Amino acid sequence: MSPTPAPTSSRITRPRTPLQAAPSRVGLLGTAGLLTLATLAGTGAVAQTASAVPRALPAGCSGTSPITCHYGVAPGNYDVTVSVGGVTAGQTEMWAEARRLMLPVTRTAAGAVATYSFTVNVRQPEGQPTGQGGTGNPGLDLRFTGAAPQVSAVSVRPAAQPLVAYLAGDSTVCDQPAAPYTGWGQMITTAVRPGAAIANYGDSGESSGSFLSNSALLAALLSKVGANDPVFIQFGHNDKQTSASVYRNNLTTMISRVRAEGGVPVLVTPPVRRLFDGNRLTPTALHVNGAGADLPSEMRAVGAAQRVPVVDLTARSKALVESLGPSASAQLFLRSSTDGVTDNTHFSQYGATRMAGLVLQSIREQNLPLAAYLR
User: Which residue ranges in the chain fall short of pLDDT 50?
Assistant: First the structure.
């Protein structure tokens, strides 16, 4: 597959002026059914009387269940504020771009509106950087789902120099374009406050070596990294025959290149596979590979040698999966009975949510750069 070129916009250019677009496409100001920007400034809920609740969908939006909204913006980072709710009771969740969950299921009473803000990273292709699973639509796409989705207002404007947390990883991390497959990077987004965005450069099938060598991956990520932006690096699933020395060298090279751009590297040991021997996970599940390399141990050693923080997702996911046991742990992964496929490596949406929670827990405990922006 030919690499997809990185967006041409400069990584140090961060637009500050409000978005201007044709009224027929976006209509962010002065459009019926849209709250004022002053009303939309907060991140919490705003209750209104039924008579004040807009009945029309915001410009750029269509449909009923789901409701989809499209805005023809250039690649970059955007502050997005939405108001959910309406005349009748609602139950709404919001997804951005390639299945990034921004707002979990939110219930609103009849006549009430709840307003929330996010900072969203827009790329092209919008999902996996090599275009696996499709390249999506240019611009910003929002999708409102749930039992009774409602959206009464949308505001989009360029973000002013947000912190951007970059994710470098494989299929267990990436923005998976189609359910039921879900990467933990698609679920971590619900916890991030406005002022910070997640830019997920995870890509299916990548090893530490292939991510380094493909210009659509590490090089494209680094072209956007700004000063003090964290870069979370998780590899291991596809390093099945990588020697310990090559794996260490690959990680060390990534660390050096991130630091050269002013970014803050953070290593993430790979989450376990669901492969049991009795009630304990096997060495293969724990990423002792075919070359005899204990990849999580090697990553921890690199972290210590390079003075790089390590999110030990292997240890945390091992504790979770083994605590659930061989049977109950299946819900974290893909099951034939519910997903149409049995897969003990890739996560269900529930499993990806639990893995994201483990990553977030470590970020908070270590007070990593993204911690100050977590809800």
Answer: 1-52
183 and 154 share one domain: no
pLDDT tens per residue, range 23-73: 222 222 222 222 222 222 333 433 344 444 556 899 999 999 999 999 999
pTM listed for this prediction: 0.86
- Length of the chain, in residues: 375
CATH number of the domain at 330, please.
3.40.50.1110
Q: CA quadruple 252, 198, 173, 12: dihedral positive or negative?
A: negative
Cα–Cα dist 206/170, whole Å: 5
Residues 255, 279 within the same domain:
yes
Question: DSSP string spanning 197-245?
Answer: EEEE---TT--HHHHHH-IIIIIHHHTT--TT-EEEE---TT-TT--HH
| Distance separating alpha carbons of residues 105 and 93, to the nearest angstrom | 4
Q: Which domain holds residue 177?
A: 163-373
Q: Which residues contact 183 (CB under 8 A, 6 or more apart)?
A: 169, 171, 172, 173, 174, 175, 176, 200, 202, 347, 352
**pLDDT given for residue 56 in this prediction:** 84
- Tens digits of residue pLDDT in 177-191: 999 999 999 999 999
CATH code assigned at 126: 2.60.120
DSSP-derived 3-state class of residue 21: coil
- Taken in order 354, 356, 362, 364, is the CA torsion positive or negative? negative
- Choose one of 158, 181, 215: the last residue of a domain: 158
